[in-house]
């Protein structure tokens, strides 16, 4: 857990920042050996899939087994793909760097599409809505609207797109005569939620789906606030230029949508379906 000021936030451009730094470290070691695998290569050795270890409801581990929205889709992919699926369950940090350098073929996780990430990655069709909201303690009567976040301490995942877009919230607060308070960065969101419950931070920013899941699981502890960002969408990521694999994955997603499976899993894990998701998305940030 680390803390930073708004100036620090402005210098960080999302989860990709950590990923790019990691990539710069490992590229010399991987040169000549790690690169995006073609479909022909993948058919021979299998598809290396990286998923996150604890990002409910998209991916998490329960009773020693991977579960969640993305993990159920991976099981569907195993049944239809003409190659083996080799899944690696990892902490978030380093997943996208691993994809961009060829260590993994695809990140099947809810990676928010951003301008910076698109410099080194290509994204599938969006899989859900990822508009950013805040969550607070249910018994905290000092927060009833966005203006009440003035100067308060916020928790967010380190290296995340949500961290990169906190200045949007800062702008909203400035219009009300306020400002963004101290920012506390966490390795994972469960840590942030724990600190929120204990009063160590005043609110946490995450996507609407993640926070709806949290509030549903712990309605006596947390309360959902309002949107603090513009539209945002998560998708799966492959290395930049890996067109064959991208087309294959988009084809799989399209079939899951056509047969109703996609909406079924969205309702199961998100509590609602998203029938109007764009086929592709060009981010503003």
Automatic annotation (TrEMBL):
- Respond yes or no to whether keyword Signal is given for this record: yes
Domain Solute-binding protein family 3/N-terminal positions: 46-273
What InterPro entries does the record tag this protein with? Solute-binding_3/MltF_N (IPR001638)
Q: Which residues form a coiled coil?
A: none
What range does the record give for the signal peptide? 1-36
Keywords assigned by UniProt, alphabetized: Signal
| Signal in keyword set | yes
What protein name does the entry list? L-cystine-binding protein FliY
Annotated organism of origin: Bradyrhizobium ivorense
